[in-house]
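#struct-pred
JK: can someone run the complex with S-adenosylmethionine? inputs below
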Amino acid sequence: MLSSDRGNLESCRRLIGEGDLVIVYERHDAMKAITVKGGAEIQNRYGVFKHSDWIGKPFGSKVLSNKGQFIYILAPTPELWTLVLNHRTQILYIADISFVISFLEIVPGSVVLESGTGSGSLTTSLARAVAPFGHVYTFDFHEQRAASAREDFQRTGLNQFITVDVRDIQGEGFPEKFSGKADSVFLDLPQPWLAIPSAGKMLTSDGVLCSFSPCIEQVQRSCEAMAAEFTDVRTFEVLLRTYEVRDVKLGDLSSCGTRSFGKLPCKRKQRFLNEEHGDETMEEVPTSVMAKPCQETRGHTGFLTFARLRCL
Ligand SMILES: C[S@@+](CC[C@H](N)C(=O)[O-])C[C@H]1O[C@@H](n2cnc3c(N)ncnc32)[C@H](O)[C@@H]1O
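RT: done, structure tokens with the ligand placed:
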């Protein structure tokens, strides 16, 4: 179960049990979600790990394989879930997600309408933000995607905060029963301008709409559609720059690339083999802490256009 509300945050502090969803963390770029089953085991480059060894340990524990090597067993937060979920579509990542949640002013108790559901990456974070009193109603016209998203929300334990329905939002708009009831609406659709009049109808007075589009032409058409009923229309592009921080031997600095900076001299103990005597000694070698932008940093994902419903 994900840490979705105060109660579930508590559940992340409790001990791992049979049937819990955990994130197996090998490295920042090698993680997967696993359901703990007493008799099961996983095998990877570090050896064989028995699930039964994890039961009774706190989330975040370091656990050992048959070879004595380790991995971490983490609580499945929405931030980690976004990194391990099954990609059935393009998804929103954490930089865009956090910006969306802030600018849509989503708080516990909010009612949020979303379309399309896609792989449920954004929906998962929306659900944690509205919990424990609010609800996310999410719509996708693709039946299989909606069904898979429902299964995922069941697995992560967030299904109590999410309702998934199959509906063509560009063609039919959101259901009438939500008229004037949504605190915020989020659109990730190919032709969002077709759904904007309906989004306006669903929002409470001064509610906020956000539309995510990869192309600027989509943004232009959406802004035109927003002009009729919305105010404070603003478009953002969120560019996240991740840094790699490493401890390197001073002689190896050139291998870190010319863009490296932020050197903090320090000393690290290193094991040396004494060739003459064949024994090992520990010596201190000068090292530096290097920080440099990660090569794999994601560039453009899309544009986020926010607009507030004009009060009458
Ligand atoms: C890029 S995905 C959304 C990804 C999602 N934001 C996430 O973070 O996982 C876009 C989704 O919109 C759905 N979609 C496209 N046109 C639609 C329409 N007219 N009505 C409802 N859903 C639609 C697609 O089936 C697809 O699943």
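RT: quick notes.
The domain at 6-76 is CATH 3.10.330.20 (Vcp-like ATPase; Chain A, domain 2).
The CA atoms of residues 59 and 75 lie 5 Å apart.
JK: thanks, will look after standup
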